[in-house]
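Final report, Chapter 2: Outcomes

The project's central promise was a pipeline that accepts a single protein chain and returns its three-dimensional structure in a standardized token representation, suitable for archiving and comparison. That pipeline is now operational. To close this chapter, we reproduce one record exactly as it appears in the project archive, with the input sequence first and the structure output second.
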Amino acid sequence: MPQTDVSPTKSNYMEIQERLERAQEGYDLLEQKRQILVIQLMNRVEAAKRVKKEVDRAMEEALAALNEAALSSGSQHLEAQSSGVTGNHRLRIQTHSVMGISVPSISCEQGEMGLEYSILDGHCAVDEVMRKFRQALEAIAELAEVENAVFRLAREVKKTQRRVQALEKTFIPRYKETLTRISDALEEREREQLVIMKKVRDRREAARQSTEQDDHGGD
């Protein structure tokens, strides 16, 4: 918190003035950062909505294909085939910076879709199930990326907003209030000094005139 109970001196006035200027510069920079972060956040929120619809659609298509395969091959037969499927999938996570915030880039690297079961046991509906779920997996990875970015950006926006409000509502007003108090005290002190100097000057003038009158009276 800014110190407000400082002595009303010119050096303290200059020091508080410098702090106020730094606080105002910090406020301007943080407000610019906050605005950019909000834009970035809103863009990713819209992207998250779009990708969420893609995930819902992909999962709906994948489940529909699964139901179709179950009807064609039978649930037990389909379960037996699925137990032998081994997918070589990996998530690659990299990061990049957005206004100093580390934001992930997530991609799903899937192995080649080969022959996972016997040709005699296979069915085209099963291939369609695998293809649909692979597509859904890519959409899910993209959704994880944008939702993670939304979370991190929202957290940074909230943090930056608190700092902006602290400067705007607390630090800057108190620095200004302290400067006003010091300025008023210095002006009051200056007026008192002027009054004292005037009184001293008047007394000197009165003493000089009295001395001159005494000299003239002696003549």
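Archive annotation: Residues 124-218 form the longest helix (95 residues).
This record, like all others produced under the grant, will remain available to the consortium after the project formally closes.
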